[in-house]
Every structure is written in structure tokens, then in C-alpha cells.
């Protein structure tokens, strides 16, 4: 048999590359005669650059940029031909914010000051390196500034000075905005916002109210203030663009990219097109995907649902591995997944988290006995 192994990351334990390697290793133990093709996947969040580099090759270029709270942070972007791929979380990710007392949520107030300035620096570095198409993966952000910091790093001007790069707290006092210098800086460059999020910038379904709590904007007052600041920003920039699909992605970073003429693509589609995934699916007998927690979100625009959507029309069965499976068999089959296998159920919680590579390989080894001819 020919097997396509195309998982997303198992958040907190394995990158997509590591997960694909573990599944392939375990499968080959049971079915050494099978041809296993490993193609790690991503939907625009953490791991985006590594996944594309593993499939496309190209050159990884290192840079030091400004982190969400102003500190220098290392970041890497991929240059493949005249296209550059950027992972915004490397410059403004949730993991770069200090944690509060619960050890999970950022310290209160951090997101109110956090900026996407470093993402704009990465875009500028990519253009300076010769990129004419810049794809920015959105996901895992710790910011909520509407992409104002991105604009500032690309020479947009605002009053008072510094308001664009101070997070929503500073945006509340913004009185004027000139995006023209940023547009000129990117003349001739195609921008792509790669994200599975289609929320608008403002309102009940906007960046602040939907994603703010996980970034430390936990009280109604925090969210009201932040959404009000983004409204001020949007009124000065272009209020119509604030309603576009994906404007609310990554705390509104999608909005900043759309203001600069960028287009939104689902993150999964961006990666799938880059690696030629549809052709790969059509050339195998079985498709395997997976992620850390397979739940209802997995079935809506994520890697797992994307693989299942490609496998169905190609008449190829699709199965999934996950750390934990929180969707019933009937719902899985309705969404094109023949079966899902939980690491926690098959090897135990302690083993799954303590030895994730070995655990995932062991699950794949057992499953191969069922599916390999």
C-alpha cells in the first residue's frame, strides 16, 4: 500500500514534522512493505515555516525582530524562489507574553500593550531579501492591535507618535493615520494572509470578544476598551475592510494585511497548494492525518477536515490520530473520517505526554495491523 501521512502539530508535545515521523516509524514496524509518504501540515499557526521548509526546501533566513512587548526576539522566515513565508507567532505569539498566576493565561494587561511591530519587520526583511510574494501565517498570536504595529514597521505614520506600536492601549488615543508610506514600501509585492479564521475585526464576533480572553483580556471592561481602540483605528484607516472575512485573525493582524492590499487564504489551502497535496492524495491508498486534540474545531477549516475533504472526492479512506478524540464516530464519518485513534485511550495519559514520539509510533504500529493489506 501507499500511505500518505499528513498530520498537523500535536500542540505542546510534537511538531507536525515530528508527528509525521513518529507515525511513519510506527507504521513501518507493522507494514515494512508499505510505501509511506510523510507530508507534515499546518494551517498558518506555529510550525507554518518548518512545515513548508520540509516540503518546499528553500532558504531559512534568521532575523532579530521586536517582540510583542518590545523585547528583541529571534525569528526565521522561509525564502523559496521569489516567495517568502512568515510565521507571525514567532514575532507576536502568545508564547512570548508573560504568564499570570494560573500559569496558562497571559498576565492581565499584557495584550493591551502588545504589538505586531515585529511581524512588520519580518515582512520588510523578506521584501529586502527579494520576495515578491509574502505569505504571512496567522495563528497563535498574543496581540490585539489590529495590525497597527505591522503598519508602523512598514513606515505608516500616526499621531501621536508611537501610538501605532503601543498596542490597543495606545491606539485609543490615535488621532490621525497615513498608510500611504506602507503601501509604497510594498509596491509590487503580493501579500497573503494565511488563516483559518474568518472573523471580522470588530463587534461580538470580532478579534477582541472571540479571542481576547485567551490573551488575558478577561474582563468585560478590558474587552470593551480594546474593541473601542480598534474601532478608533478602523475609523481612521478603512472601516469597510474591518468587516472583511479574516480581518479579525491574529488579533486583527489580518486587518492590517488587508489594508495593505493583501488577500486572505485559508491557511490549510495555502500549505496544501504549496506541497501539491491534492495530487498526493490521489496517488495513495490511505490518508492519515491528526493533531493533538480532535474536537469540533478540528472539523471546521483545520488540517484534519482539510485532508478529509480532499480524500473524499478522491475515494481514498482517511483516518486520524490524536492525543485525545472528543468527537463521536458518527460525526467523524459524516465529516469524511473513517476512524480516529486516541493516544490517551490506547497508551494512557502519562505515557502520551511523557513520551509522545514513542506513544504515537506505538499507536500507528497497532493501527497498521488493521488497515494495511
Automatic annotation (TrEMBL):
SUPFAM superfamilies hit by this protein: Glycerate kinase I (SSF110738)
Top-rank taxon, per record: Bacteria
GO BP terms: organic acid phosphorylation
UniProt GO MF annotations: glycerate kinase activity
InterPro entries, per the entry: Glyc_kinase_flavodox-like_fold (IPR018193), Glycerate_kinase (IPR004381), Glycerate_kinase_RE-like (IPR018197), Glycerate_kinase_sf (IPR036129)
Alphabetical UniProt keywords: Kinase, Transferase
PANTHER family: GLYCERATE KINASE
Similarity remark: Belongs to the glycerate kinase type-1 family.
Protein name: Glycerate kinase
Species annotation: Jiangella alkaliphila
Source species taxonomy: Bacteria, Bacillati, Actinomycetota, Actinomycetes, Jiangellales
Amino acid at each position: 500500500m501507499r500511505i500518505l501521512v499528513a498530520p498537523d502539530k500535536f500542540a505542546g508535545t510534537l511538531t507536525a514534522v515530528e508527528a509525521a515521523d513518529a507515525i511513519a516509524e510506527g507504521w513501518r514496524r507493522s507494514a515494512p512493505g508499505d510505501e509511506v509518504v510523510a507530508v507534515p501540515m499546518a494551517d498558518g499557526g506555529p510550525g507554518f515555516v518548518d512545515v513548508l521548509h520540509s516540503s518546499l526546501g528553500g532558504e531559512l533566513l534568521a532575523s532579530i525582530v521586536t517582540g510583542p512587548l518590545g523585547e528583541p526576539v529571534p525569528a526565521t522566515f522561509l525564502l523559496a524562489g521569489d516567495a517568502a513565508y512568515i510565521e507571525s507567532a514567532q514575532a507576536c505569539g502568545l508564547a512570548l507574553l508573560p504568564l499570570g498566576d494560573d500559569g496558562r493565561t497571559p498576565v492581565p494587561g499584557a495584550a493591551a500593550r502588545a504589538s505586531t511591530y515585529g511581524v512588520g519587520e519580518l515582512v520588510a526583511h523578506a521584501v529586502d531579501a527579494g520576495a515578491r510574494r509574502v505569505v504571512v501565517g496567522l495563528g497563535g498570536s498574543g496581540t490585539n492591535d489590529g495590525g497597527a504595529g505591522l503598519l508602523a514597521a512598514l513606515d505608516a505614520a500616526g499621531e501621536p507618535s508611537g501610538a501605532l506600536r503601543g498596542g490597543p492601549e495606545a491606539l485609543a488615543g490615535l488621532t490621525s493615520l497615513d498608510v500611504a508610506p506602507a503601501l509604497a514600501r510594498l509596491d509590487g509585492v503580493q501579500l497573503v494572509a494565511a488563516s483559518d479564521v474568518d472573523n471580522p475585526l470588530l463587534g461580538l464576533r470580532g478579534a477582541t470578544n472571540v479571542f481576547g480572553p485567551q490573551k488575558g483580556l478577561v474582563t468585560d471592561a478590558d474587552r470593551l476598551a480594546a474593541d473601542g481602540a480598534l474601532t478608533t483605528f478602523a475609523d481612521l484607516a478603512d472601516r469597510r475592510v474591518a468587516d472583511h472575512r479574516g480581518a479579525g485573525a491574529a488579533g486583527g493582524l489580518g486587518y492590517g494585511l488587508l489594508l495593505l492590499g493583501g488577500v486572505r487564504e485559508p491557511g490549510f489551502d495555502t500549505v496544501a497548494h504549496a506541497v501539491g497535496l491534492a495530487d498526493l492524495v490521489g496517488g495513495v491508498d490511505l490518508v492519515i492525518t491528526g493533531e493533538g486534540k480532535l474536537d469540533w474545531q478540528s472539523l471546521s477549516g483545520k488540517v484534519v477536515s482539510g485532508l478529509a475533504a480532499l480524500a473524499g472526492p478522491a475515494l481514498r479512506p482517511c483516518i486520524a490520530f490524536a492525543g485525545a478524540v472528543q468527537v463521536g464516530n458518527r460525526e467523524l464519518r459524516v465529516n469524511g473520517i473513517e476512524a480516529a485513534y486516541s493516544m490517551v485511550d490506547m497508551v494512557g495519559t502519562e505515557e502520551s505526554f511523557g513520551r509522545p514520539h514513542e506513544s504515537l509510533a506505538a499507536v500507528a504500529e497497532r493501527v497498521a495491523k488493521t488497515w494495511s493489506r
